[in-house]
Amino acid sequence: MTTITTRTVEYPADGLTMIGHLALPAGVGRRPAVLLGPEGMGLSDVERRRADALAELGYVALAFDMHGGRYLGDPDEMLARCLPLLADPDRMRGIGHAALDVLHAEPRSDPDRIGAVGYGTGGAIALELGRDGVNLRAIGTVNATTTGRPGETARIRCPVWAGVGSEDPIMPPAQRDAFTAEMQAAGVDWRLVVYGGALHAFHHPPVDHPTVPGVGYHPRHAQRAWHDVIGLLTECLPVTE
Fold first, then answer.
1. Residue 103 dihedral angles phi and psi, to the nearest 5°
2. Which of 109, 130, 93, 127 is nearest to 34 (CA)?
3. pLDDT > 60? residue 229
4. Exposed, middle or buried by CB within 10 Å (0-12, 13-18, 19+), for 183?
C-alpha cells in the first residue's frame, strides 16, 4: 500500500468554520486533485476513508465539510439544515468554492486537474460548482440527480457521471428524467447509471442512528458505484508521474 499523509484543515464557509480531511499521496510532485462531498449527514469516517483511498491511487483528495465540523445524525436536524441549503444554489456554491480554495492552496494539487465527486448533498454541491463554470475535469455524483437554475447547466465544462438507485424515493424516476433532460439540453457529456434494487444512500454502510425513510445499504452496488467513480477519474484525471 502506498504511503499517504493526512491532516485536518479548517477554513471558513457558510458562516461556519469547516473542518475538512485532506489526504496527500506519496511523493513531492503535483498531482490531480479531487473534492469529495458527503451525504447530508455530513463528513464522517466513511468519506475520510474514501479520501485516503484516492490518495493511495495518487490523487490529492479533500473530503469537505458542510456543517461546521458537525455530523447530523438526527434526521430532523439534518433536513432542517440541508433542505434550505439544497434550495439555495449560491450557498452550495459558496461551500464548494471554499473547499476548492483549500485544494488550490495545497502545493501538491495541480490546479488545472481537479475533479469533484459528491454523495447526496455533497453531490449537489459538486454539480453547482459545474453550473458556476468552475474549471473541473470531471463531476461524479451518487444520489444527487438535482437540477439547477435555467440556462446555467450549459456552463458545465466537463463530463458528468451520475449514479442512483432504482428504488430511491428521494431521487425518483421523474427527478432522474428532469436531470437527464437538463444535461442533454445543455449539451453536457453526461452518463447515468441506475443501480437495480438500490435505495437512497445505498453506498453508505449502515449507521447507528435513525435515518430518513428510503435509505438502505446495498454492498454490491456500493462497490460497483465506487468502481464507476474511479473509472470516471481514471478517464478524466489520469494520474501521471
1. -65, -40
2. 109
3. yes
4. buried
